[in-house]
Each structure stands twice: as structure tokens, then as C-alpha cells.
Amino acid sequence: MELTVTSFCHIHENKVIVNDNLLFFQGNFINFADFIKTVYKQEQINYPKFYKMDSVSKLGFLATDLVLKARTIAGYASEAVGIIFSNSSSSLDTDVAHHETICDRSNYFPSPSVFVYTLPNIVIGEVCIKHKIKGENAFLVSESFDPQMIFNIVHEHFENNRMEACLCGWVEMMGNKFNALVMLVEKDGRAHDTASFAPIAFNVTKMKELFEHN
Fold this sequence. Notes:
By secondary structure, the protein is an alpha+beta fold.
């Protein structure tokens, strides 16, 4: 079965790339919070809950939103679209923030709004709620970006007819270091060239190229 990347977004090194086009670059980078908020406002995304999310959820949510802004999944049943994300830090960025609220017993102020994000798959939940996705999903943790692992899992789901489209990739967030590559994968027969982006083969080599060269 031939699978194709029909849209992708790479957010890293203070820039946002969508389908080979540089969408945003912040040369005077201060911190992730300011960076991601600036991109959110520039792209005129209207989703008030965004401001309540933790950093990794904001990163994955925004990257996915930009992917789907460039290529709609409206033609698929909600159960036919899946999500396979991965990273190396799990939810550690948020875990640290939560720990800081409970480590001092004399100033004990655990926040339910922070605690709810101390699982890495919450970013998938945020994406599913916004885009009404109800298909198979998983958040995997590996030492580094592992395109072979992603390929194997996504391809298996397609082969077994558990997906007709899949959002997959890498969503890593720790402190002010971040890197997200989110791809929309569809069967080759559903792909078509657009004015701005020619779909590419979904394979290990192409994923490495997207991750390393954009």
C-alpha cells in the first residue's frame, strides 16, 4: 500500500514551516510562550481553550491546526482519522511545573489546571476535541525521533483498515527547547497536487528529510 504525506508542519528553531513555505520566523526569540502566542495570533486561530493548555499541547495543537488548515480532512468519517505522536520527554515539561507547586509544604498550591496535563497523550485529546477526530491514537516515547517506528505503526493501521487518514509525527517540548513535525498521511489514491505543495511519499527517508532539512 502506497501512503503519501499530503500536508506537514515543522516548528523548530524559532520558525514555522508549512508545506515547504516559511510561515513565521522570530529572530529576536525570547521564550516559547511568547513565540507560540505570536504564531497563534498571526494565523488568526480562534480557540479560547488554547491559552489554558500546557506548552506541549500548544505546540502539537498549533502544528496540527496549521496542517489541517492547508489540507482538510472534512471528507473522512471522524472514526477514520487517527493520530500517532511521539517525543522523548513525555510530559516532563509540565511535570516539572506541577512538582514546583507541591514541593514546598509551607507554600502548597497544587493546580488542577496544571495537573490535568501531566500525561503526554493530553495533546492528542486537545487535537481530537478541536477537529472532532475519533479514530485510533497513541502517544509514544522514544529516545529520539524514530521515523521507522512511526512508519511501522501508521502503515500497520492502514493495512488493517483502522485508518483512512493519519496525523503523525514528533512533538517535543522541554523548557524553551521545542521541535514539532506533524504530517497528514493519506492513501496515495486520495492525494492530489495543490498549487503550493506536491504530496510526497510517506517513508522513513522522506520523514528524515523533513525533520532534518526544514
